[in-house]
Design goal:
Helix content is 91%, strand content 0%. α1 runs antiparallel to α2 and α1 crosses α4. By secondary structure, it is mainly α.
Length: 144
């Protein structure tokens, strides 16, 4: 009997941890949204991906640790874990991840400008050179 109670307490602790992980996972999506402008269609797609992955993780955890049995205290543990995470670490994690994602997007923008602008100028110069060559060839063939 004591083993069963210890197992259920362990499962409750795992479900609290799972709720905290789900909260952190959602904050990753929120930080991406704060860093990169999204249209509503992409937000809906991100939410769909979040819920699919979250559902898989929750039911895999149920299957792995509780043999697929759904218990109300496990759902309570998940919600308690979400609440603990939301009221303690969420704002800090969102600010940190948003800062990191903004740095990454800035680096990509700078690299894009370093690559795109010179290649655009190279293409313009190549186009002008080909255009001049075409004129020269036309003049050369007209003279014959």
């Amino acid at each position: 009997m004591a083993d069963l109670i210890i197992f259920e307490v362990d499962l409750f602790g795992i479900s609290i941890l799972l709720g905290m992980i789900i909260g952190c996972f959602y904050d990753i999506f929120e930080a991406i949204r704060n860093s990169i402008k999204h249209k509503n269609v992409f937000i809906a797609i991100e939410d769909f991906i979040f819920w699919i992955v979250t559902t898989y993780i929750v039911f895999y955890t149920f299957y792995k640790f509780n043999y697929g049995q759904l218990r109300s205290y496990v759902f309570m543990g998940i919600f308690i874990g979400l609440a603990i995470y939301k009221f303690t670490l969420s704002k800090l994690i969102i600010m940190l991840l948003t800062f990191i994602f903004k740095i990454i997007t800035t680096i990509f923008k700078v690299l894009g400008k370093l690559i795109v602008v010179p290649s655009r100028n190279l293409c313009k110069n190549a186009y002008k050179a080909l255009k001049n060559t075409k004129k020269t060839i036309k003049i050369a063939f007209k003279g014959r």
